[in-house]
Amino acid sequence: MRTTIATRMHQSLQSMAQLTMDMDVRMDDAVKLRSQLIVEWSEKGIRPTYTDLVIRAAAKAIGKHPAINAELTDRALILKGDINIGMAVAMPEGLIVPVVKHADQLSLEDIAVASSGLAVRAREGGLTPDDLQDGTFTVTALGMYGVDSFTPIINAPQAGILGVNRIREDTAWEDGTPVRVQRMRLSLTWDHRVLDGAPAAEFLAEVRDLLEAPYRLLV
Asked: Is 208 helix (H, G, I), strand (E, B) or coil?
């Protein structure tokens, strides 16, 4: 597995023009929503994560900014019809990326169930080849390790990967008064051959806006 990861990561960096940008997200409402959903869904055994919220937000944002959901071949730039979000799962042996298929058609609850199932099967060695195929965009999280910012490497031949960092205490000014807020930084790496910085930033801003108004993720 380590050899395969090394080969794929090196090939990805060698074959693409990869750049990374960061953007802060105010997470106060997202934290409240997740806490409410944990209680509401507890009887079903469903515990949503912040990564689930980001996957849902990314899937909705791709619908408005489909250029990030593309693949560049020798002959053409192919916009993918499906929105399949890979989720990086860390294991002692290395990293594996199962895929939440048709994420744009799933509710937040469906995504929480799907991602939890994929993560469990990944760690138990129960993933099927189909679980690992057809990803069009990837979300990877290091926030649980206290990371504030990092540079994700694209899972080729995709055109983008979104890194999720920790939620941290911060200060904002409202009407001249400092208030305590919770922020999270998103780190987007994209292939500059596929799209330029402005459309990449617009996509990332859409993800931010959805997470800052998280009840939109429920519809």
From this structure: helix
Task: Report d(CA 3, CA 7) in Å as an integer.
Answer: 6
Does 10 participate in catalysis according to the annotation?
no
Contact 161, 139 (CB under 8 A): yes
Q: What gap in Å lies between CA 132 and CA 124, rounded to an integer?
A: 15
Whether 196 is a known active-site residue: answer: yes
Rg (Cα) of the chain, in Å, rounded?
17
- One-letter amino acid at 116 equals S
Q: H-type helices in 65-123, by residue range?
A: 108-123
Structure token pair of residue 18: 């990869």
Chain segment 106-120, per-residue pLDDT in tens: 999 999 999 999 999
Task: Choose, from 10, 82, 192, 209, the residue flagged as catalytic.
Answer: 192
% residues pLDDT > 90 (the chain): 88
Catalytic residue among 24, 130, 134, 196: 196
Give the residues across from 169 on adjacent strands. 182
CA distances from 70 to 80, 84, 109, 190 (A): 6, 11, 26, 11
CA–CA separation, 104 vs 13, rounded Å? 28
Please list, in sequence order, all residues whose beta carbon lies within 8 angstroms of the beta carbon of residue 9, skipping any fewer than 6 positions away. 153
For residue 192, which of 3, 17, 39, 8 has the smallest C-alpha distance?
17
Predicted TM-score (pTM) of this structure: 0.94
CB atoms within 10 A of CB 174: 8
Nearest to 56 by CA among 147, 117, 137, 133: 137
